[in-house]
Specification:
This protein has 12 helices and 19 strands. It is an alpha+beta fold. Bound molecules: FE2/S2 (inorganic) cluster and fe (ii) ion.
């Protein structure tokens, strides 16, 4: 249970708030690159600020304040020029640093434009996503996490805007036992009511859960019924990457704080069949729905189940009314880590997961159990994970996904055939193992 001031400190992300100041040290995805191919200007909102992302005709990305500094028209309707974005109202042109470089209606010899700037932030592309950085100089490197930079893969991106604070999504990732209930027993109940009982393996009991703080965040471990501490789910586990990303199987879930009451959820999926795959021309994006056509919450596949529990906790969960048990130890560890890093940010000290050395940022390989909740990147069962056991993924995500899904299965089939002929698959890097008890280890034994 937290006091109201503590809850505010952990959940408010606007400029000048402690959490807002901390989060402004990190890059966040704000769009799929392919969106700018279709329309080179996109309105975005990040950390409580309304902005406009654009790609100019030279291919440069810009991220500037939404209102034009002249008379406050939205730059969302601006014209991308050879360099910069031009306001639709009187044609003022701004470069990606926010400097006004043309004012066509002002006298030819006016120097007024030299004294007009608009707010401007950094934007960069990686792995089919556009990322934004809204913090102070010097700008840190955009972290090159493994799934963003692997070769011989196909990727796709599912996005959802959720009506809730980002911390609710993150705390769920420090909460292993919900898998057993929400995605196990509750999923059974939902499908039984539809008259299509669908046995799944998510409902296995948790015997023990554990958490280790480590260099990139927190490792989450579990021992489930029928397994021991020798199993990958305990020995290797999978990480929450500080501050706002979960790695699980071949997926990232990135929880981007739009503002205090909204989150842009990015579900980034990578298939690695183990055979050469030509580079993708572009990485497709689709919406992962939370509501059906009647506006009712969807509860019959895994990702939407997570969404609905976050959203139904309220726009900002009232943690002054919660009752944490022993099994919530991971949530407490994560809150303490956030508070510690907020204090460091306030003192101007180095922060977790801020990269400034390119040599350390070639490919950041994250620990990942091979045999776990969402299976490995070699395993096409990820489609089942997203679709929750037997639900046809294209039923949920539509034709674009169906095409990708078929391509992914074809690649895995080809990989299987090559193996059957005695050919070896492309080598994969061994995920690093962070020893249990590495740093600030906490564990809870639930069953004898
Ligand atoms: S309002 Fe933008 S140029 Fe006038
Ligand atoms: Fe979940």
């Amino acid at each position: 249970m937290l006091r109201k001031e503590q809850n505010d400190k952990l959940t408010q992300v606007g400029p000048g708030t402690p959490m807002g100041d901390l989060l402004r040290n990190y890059w966040f995805p704000i769009a799929a690159s392919v969106e700018l191919d279709e329309n080179p200007v996109k309105k975005v909102r990040l950390l409580g600020e309304d902005l406009v992302l654009y790609k100019d005709r030279s291919g440069n990305l810009g991220l500037i304040d939404e209102p034009c500094p002249h008379r406050r028209v939205s730059m969302e309707y601006g014209i991308p020029e050879e360099v910069g974005l031009r306001c639709p109202y009187h044609g003022w042109l701004f470069n990606h640093e926010g400097q006004c470089i043309e004012q066509p209606a002002e006298p030819w010899n006016s120097t007024f434009k030299d004294r007009v700037r608009t707010k401007a932030y950094q934007a960069q592309e990686l792995g089919g996503l556009v990322f934004a950085y809204m913090g102070a100089q010097p700008v840190p490197l955009l972290p090159r996490y493994d799934l963003f930079v692997w070769d011989n893969v196909i990727r796709h991106i599912g996005v959802t805007v959720l009506n809730c604070n980002w911390l609710q999504c993150m705390e769920n990732s420090l909460d292993p036992t919900h898998v057993e209930w929400l995605h196990g027993h509750y999923l059974d109940y939902v499908w039984s009511r539809k008259g299509r009982p669908m046995p799944n393996n998510f409902g296995n009991s948790h015997k023990k859960i554990g958490f280790d703080r480590y260099e990139h965040g927190i490792i989450k471990r579990r021992v489930r019924a029928g397994t021991t501490e020798e199993h990958d789910m305990w020995k290797v586990g999978h990480p929450v990457v500080f501050p706002a990303m979960l790695r699980v199987g071949p997926t990232f879930q990135i929880r981007v704080p739009i503002d205090d009451e909204h989150t842009y959820h990015v579900h980034y999926v990578v298939y690695r069949p183990g055979i050469p795959v030509p580079p993708q021309e572009s990485v497709p994006v689709y919406e992962v729905p939370l509501y059906d056509e009647h506006g009712k919450i969807i509860s019959d596949y895994v990702l939407a189940q997570d969404f609905f529990v976050w959203v139904t906790q309220g726009a900002i969960a009232d943690r002054s009314q919660e009752h944490l048990g022993q099994s919530d130890v991971g949530i407490i560890m994560y809150r303490e880590l956030l508070l510690e890093q907020m204090d460091k940010a306030a003192r101007g000290e180095p922060l977790m997961e801020v990269y400034r050395d390119a040599a350390q940022n070639q490919c950041i390989t994250l620990p990942q159990e091979r045999d776990g909740v969402a299976s490995s990147a070699q395993n096409p069962q990820v489609a089942v994970y997203i679709g929750a056991q037997g639900v046809q993924t294209e039923e949920i995500f539509g034709e674009a996904f169906k095409h990708l899904d078929q391509r992914m299965w074809a690649l895995h089939k080809e990989a299987g055939e090559r193996q059957a002929r005695g050919e070896s698959l492309l080598p994969v890097d061994e995920p690093p193992i962070v020893p249990v008890g590495y740093q600030d280890h906490k564990a809870v034994t639930i069953l004898p």
